[in-house]
Design brief:
The protein is mainly alpha-helical and about 280 residues long. Helix 1 (about 10-35) packs antiparallel against helix 6 and helix 2 runs antiparallel to helix 3. Helices cover about 70% and strands about 5% of the residues. The strands form 2 sheets. It has a two-stranded antiparallel ribbon with strand order 1-2. It is rod-shaped and about 140 Å long. Strand 1 and strand 2 form a beta hairpin.
Length: about 280
């Protein structure tokens, strides 16, 4: 039937043109963004899963930074303890030299003065060692040595939740070391003449024990960092499988829809001319 008011062919061609244009726009978006899921309407279930994965990936990024900073803090404390241990070893050596009867009073005084200078340097290291403004060997006021002493305690957030499995708590300070180095320092006027070798050995043992403790924490943090990186990479891979577009497949779909769009446009132009046939019947 030839009709002027209703052009069924034109309506079919318009609908086909609209569908192919919509799909063509969708493939263009996928190719330009690299994602096959750009909106919830593309795939509601997978969109929700991908958003959850992205949230966790972001959380693992922060956990990785936290873990790396925690390692830096522990390394700072351990390296400072290395310096302190080396200087206490020197004082211990000076004590052995001081006790040797071959030295006169002037030589012994010179040895004693060197020990005092080294001891002052140990005090400086203990007082000044910090990380990001936080003291690593306790908090106190040197001008009021009798004030309450507070250990340097740190809680590291190395996971993506608030459970104990995501946190590590450590103490970088050692109360015995601080007590003899800072609080009781006023009583140590002659570190070589007033204190025996066993005293310095005890302090060195104290330092070694703290270094062993911090070394174990370093191993935990390195293991945690490796686990975080592995979990993060697996999540990124899973999200890629779920969300990333297969460009080869999308480009083929793009060509297909482009051809359909051009064909629909051509047929629409032809269909729009169909009612003019009625003029030939008049």
């Amino acid at each position: 039937m030839v009709s002027i008011n209703t052009n069924i062919s034109s309506l079919i061609a318009q609908n086909s043109l609209r569908n192919s244009t919509s799909k063509l726009n969708n493939t263009i978006e996928q190719m330009t963004t690299g994602y096959k899921i750009n909106h919830a309407k593309d795939n509601a279930a997978n969109y929700s899963i991908a958003v959850d994965m992205s949230t966790k990936i972001g959380a693992y990024d922060v956990a990785e930074e936290n873990c790396a900073m925690a390692l830096d803090l522990v390394n700072t404390a351990n390296e400072a303890l290395d310096l302190i241990a080396d200087k206490y070893l020197r004082i211990r050596a000076l004590k052995e030299q001081f006790d040797n009867g071959t030295y006169d009073n002037i030589s012994r005084e010179t040895i004693e003065n060197e020990a005092k200078v080294i001891f002052k340097e140990i005090q400086r290291i203990v007082l000044s060692t910090e990380y990001n403004g936080k003291k690593l060997f306790g908090n106190w006021d040197l001008n009021t040595p009798d004030a309450d002493y507070k250990d340097s305690i740190f809680n590291f957030q190395i996971g993506i939740d608030q459970t104990n499995l995501s946190q590590i708590t450590i103490t970088t300070s050692n109360q015995e070391l601080v007590a003899w180095t800072i609080i009781n320092a006023a009583d140590i006027t002659t570190p070589l003449n007033g204190l025996d070798i066993d005293f310095w050995d005890e302090l060195l043992t104290c330092i070694t024990q703290k270094q062993t403790e911090l070394g174990a924490v370093q191993n935990r943090l390195e293991s945690a960092l490796e686990a975080i990186c592995t979990q993060r990479e697996n999540l990124i891979s899973s999200r890629s499988t779920l969300k990333d577009a297969d460009i080869a497949k999308v480009s083929s779909e793009y060509i297909k829809q482009q051809i359909l769009q051009q064909a629909s446009a051509t047929l629409l132009a032809t269909a729009n001319q169909s009612p003019s046939i009625a003029l030939q019947l008049i």
